[in-house]
Amino acid sequence: MGEVPSSGAAPGADGHSVLRRWADGDGQQALRASIVLLAAEGLRNADIARRLGVSRQTVSTWRKRYAVEGLDGLLDRARTGRPSAVDEGEIVASILTSTPDARTSRMVARRLGCSHTVVAETRHRWNLTGSRLTVPQIPVIPALEPSDLWPVGLHLDAGCTVLVLAGRSVATVPPPSAEPAVDPYALAAVGNALTEATAAAQAEAAAPAPIAGPGPGFGSGSVSTSGLSSGLTSGLNSGTHHDTDFVGPFLDAVRRTHPLPELHAVILRAEPSSTRPLQTQIAERCSHLGITVHQPPERTTGLSFTRAVLALDAARHPESSTRVLLDVASVLSRYVDGPETARVRWIREPLPAPSAAPPTLPLPSPGHSGPGTGGGANQIDLGSFNECVVIETVRLAGRITRGEIAERTRLTQQSVSRIARSLIQRGLLVEERQRHSAVGKPSSPVRLRDGAAHALGIHIDPHVLTAVLVDLSGRVVARRSEPITSDPRPGAVVTQIADLGETVLEQAGHGRWEEGFLGIGVATPGPVDTVSGTVLDPPLMSVLRDVPLRTLLERRFSCRIVIEKDCSAAAVGERWIGRDSRACDFVYLYLGTGVGTGLFLNGDLYRGLTANAGEFGQLCAVTLGRFDESGRPEILPECNPGSYAPAEHPSRAIGRQRSKLTVQQAAKAVSRGVLSVIDLLDVGLVVVGGPFFTGEVADVWLTEIEHAVNAYPTARRLRRIRVERSVNSSEAVAVGAASTIFHSTFTPRLRRSP
User: Fold this and answer.
1) Is the bond preceding 174 in cis, omega lying within 30 degrees of 0?
2) 627: DSSP letter
């Protein structure tokens, strides 16, 4: 007997058309529809299995499912256990938010509840194999060659979502770390904000459009933007939500801000349009601007793809890590919370110059061989560290013999002699006349050669710019100050800064500094992203808000540039100029346009997590119990030394509605904040300096602070706090900015090798 066809029902007219549409597609659903259609033609299970290349059991299963449940029986059912497919963006984000030892495919799969094979395939597709971060390959459509991609723009409105990436030559791979490559909390904030913003945009797109005049076309003028900051720009509804051109001006602005890199626009979402498709309009504008258009990978959603790209950026470029993530999250949140129709428009500041290797000691003279590379680990690094130890010891002492260096550093006499001989040959040390003694051989003291190295320091104050060229001893070789320009454009201020620096270098004369020039240190009011060199929100200099200062200055100067917060730079200058008298831990109280603190702890400058430690004004307000209506610590008039009245004219008002404060009143208030710092850190020295710490008021400040830090602390029976004047001049911050270059070059530190 022939095979009896398995049970199954012939599809009706409506069901037949649906099955035909499914069968014309791809995947498992097309296979199942083809089985039912062939069965309806009267074919046996064996014939169907042979024609479709499946087992007879598979044919029987889907015929029975269709007979019982109809079309619904051919759909995937919810299954327990591991999902059959996982969003690749989630896998990438999970890898990058894990420590290197927790990035194996099996461990990631266990966290996500999927197959480790799926994770391994994703890692291979994104080029994230191994525990280190190699050059990623973002599998967009059409494909991209592996390159260093930076997210530089995000647009989201009711019509579409577009992410713009900038491609550059491949950068070095970040060194492995025991910490996660990406801040998971910042990345989660972006994910939550993007989910809410996308939902709000889709709801806005589905809502009935209000009656309004025609919106601007795709060829209309652009919306103004600084190109240097992220922000949210309000938009207007037109006849249809998604036909309005808000994307074109956004793409124009991104290209203006990033004129050099290759740009790639990834269209994450585009609402259907009754007129010309929005994707076509975006593609035409991108073609005009030289931007390549891509679609996200099939195995990701727009949300997970964005999170994955931002995570890759944060992992490969630590200088833009948490700040960029939080900026994007803030912009998206404002879109959701906005009272009117709006659009997200985030544009990243110009990219920093490719990172160069940190400066090393001046090159050896011809014929001199560097540190050996024999047995043992990191012999070159060890030699560099010991050289810095010797330089630091000589710098603190002024002049010192080799025997005294060995005694202070615990290095062997042979090592000290070898290092000293090398440094003398390279011009960093100078050997003085032999010192005779009654016992032993004559000794020859050594000292630093002042002209062996120079650095330029620039201090940006809300009212004045100061630039100084400083030699290795801290002596000012050339200086110049001028009022800051009143031009409200950031570019004008940056141009003035660069012109001032060039003027000072020309004033000094190239023969005096060019051979040993180490770089430029720039001190600016905080907060500041010191790694990327971006000034963020200076309270009295809104013109520099979100300005990538280091990137812009690198276009004028082909040397190393360091951006530092002003009070931290002043502390570094104090440490460098003060030599042995400042070799201990101390707090530097900086009296400038505001009051800040620089902290030297455990022998090095303490910058904190984001290099913005020392925000003294808020601490002082909390100590005094001064808060505004929203509960935020006040911006205290006591922390603005430039507004004080002379000491002989006491304030006539009481409470918060004060007229000008006297120096005595302000010093009493500020000293309470210093008391909190001393109780918190338990240091024994407070140094006071800055442009408003002048001779006529210095004694008032010293008296009030010394009384507060010695009369009130909890541990006052155990210590006596010294309160001293700064050894630096009124140009302390500019000198300190230059000293940051010396400090980072010559101060001994144990660096982890990549």
Assistant:
1) no
2) B
Phi/psi region, residue 196 (left: phi>0; alpha: psi -120 to 50; beta: rest), is alpha
Tell me how far apart the alpha carbons of residues 715 and 713 are, in angstroms, rounded to a whole number. 5
β-partners of residue 457 are 468, 521
What's the CA gap between 686 and 600, in Å, rounded? 10
Mean of per-residue pLDDT scores for the chain = 78
- Residue 638 neighbours by CB under 8 Å, 6+ apart: 595, 620, 661, 665, 666, 669, 670
N-term to C-term CA, the chain:
75
Exposed, middle or buried: residue 79 (CB in 10 Å: 0-12, 13-18, 19+)? exposed
Closest CA to 573 of 690, 680, 652, 655: 690
> Could you give the domains of the chain?
13-74 (1.10.10), 144-347 (no CATH), 379-448 (1.10.10.10), 454-746 (3.30.420.40)
Nearest residue to 619 (alpha-carbon basis) of 639, 590, 600: 639
In contact, 300 and 307? CB cutoff 8 Å? no
Per-residue three-class SS string for 363-408 = CCCCCCCCCCCCCCCCHHHHHHHHHHHHHHHHHHHCEECHHHHHHH
193: its two tokens: 């904000």
With a cut of 80, say whether residue 703 has pLDDT above it: yes
Cα(407)–Cα(420) distance, integer angstroms: 14
Decide if 587 contacts 599 (C-beta within 8 A): yes
Of the pLDDT bands very low, low, confident and very high (cuts 50, 70, 90), residue 731 is confident
> Residue 501: what residue type?
G
Single-letter amino acid code for the residue at 583: A
Output the pLDDT for position 151: 92
Residue 543 has pLDDT above 80, yes or no: yes
Half-sphere exposure of 286 (CA within 13 A, CB side): 21
Question: Which of 703, 591, 705, 697 has its CA nearest to residue 648?
Answer: 697
| Joined tokens for residue 512 | 């005096």
Q: How confident is the model at residue 201 (pLDDT cuts 50, 70, 90)?
A: confident
Query: Has residue 363 got a pLDDT over 60?
Result: no
- Type of residue at 160: C
Which candidate, 497, 459, 458, 451, places its Cα nearest to that of 475?
A: 451
For residues 83 and 77, give the distance between their C-alpha atoms in angstroms, rounded to a whole number: 11
Give the range with max mean pLDDT: 310-324, 358-372, 731-745: 731-745
Nearest to 473, CA basis, from 377, 577, 567? 577
β-strand partners of 151: 165
Which pLDDT score is estimated for 521? 92
Q: Where does residue 179 rank: exposed (0-12), middle (13-18), buried (19+ CB within 10 A)?
A: exposed
What would the two tokens of residue 325 be? 């993530």
Question: How large is the average pLDDT for residues 621-632?
Answer: 84
Query: Does 79 score more than 70 pLDDT?
Result: no
- H or E segment at 685? strand 685-689
Distances (CA, A) of 269 to 85, 92, 156, 282: 22, 20, 9, 12
CA distance 741 to 560: 9
3-state DSSP assignment of residue 223: coil
DSSP state of 645: B
Residue whose tokens read 């400058």: 605
Rounded CA-CA distance 19/72 in Å is: 11
d(CA 100, CA 333): 31
For residue 750, the model assigns a pLDDT of: 54
SS (H, E, C) 444-479: CCEEECHHHCEEEEEEECCCEEEEEEEECCCCEEEE
Phi first, then psi, for residue 578 (nearest 5°) are: -75, -15
Q: Which of 313-322, 384-393, 475-484 has maximum average pLDDT?
A: 475-484
Q: What is the pLDDT of residues 174-200, one digit of tens each?
A: 555 555 567 788 888 888 888 888 888
pLDDT in tens, 637-691: 877 776 776 655 444 433 444 457 788 888 888 888 889 898 888 888 999 988 8
